[in-house]
Every structure is written in structure tokens, then in C-alpha cells.
Design goal:
transferase activity; 2 helices; 4 strands; Translation Initiation Factor IF3; transferase; alpha+beta
Length: 70
């Protein structure tokens, strides 16, 4: 599993950092972010790129997404 830690980055940086991993076709990606505004964009980009959000959790301000290629 590839891990992408974009905590501390503001929109749209988390999505811009995620896109190359999705384009590369990684089978499973763990995304850690702290920008709540990015969560909808991460879910949308994942879906549009052929990925499912397998899990999503929150710990304080931090969000964790597990994305799997559909």
C-alpha cells in the first residue's frame, strides 16, 4: 500500500498530490489529510479515477482514506 501524507496542506494541494498516484494505477492508497475541505474532492477524484473509498476515518482534525482500484 502506498501512503500519501498531505496533512498541513491546503486545498487544492492534497488532490494535486493524489492525482499522480491514481494516474499511475496504484492498487491501494492510504491518504492522510487535515484539510476537511479536501475530503469531498478526494472522494470525487477517486471515484472519477476508478477507485473506491474502502474506508474513511477521522482522528481529531486528521482524516484517513483507504482507496482501492475498482
Amino acid at each position: 500500500m502506498v501512503e500519501l501524507d498531505v496533512r498541513g496542506l491546503s486545498c487544492p494541494e492534497p488532490v494535486l498530490n493524489l492525482k499522480p498516484l491514481l494516474d499511475r494505477g496504484e492498487s491501494e492508497i492510504k491518504v492522510l489529510c487535515s484539510c476537511g475541505a479536501s475530503s469531498d474532492n478526494i472522494r470525487r477524484l477517486a471515484k472519477n479515477s476508478g477507485y473506491n473509498v474502502e474506508s474513511e476515518s477521522q482522528n481529531g482534525e486528521d482524516l484517513e482514506f483507504i482507496l482501492k482500484k475498482a
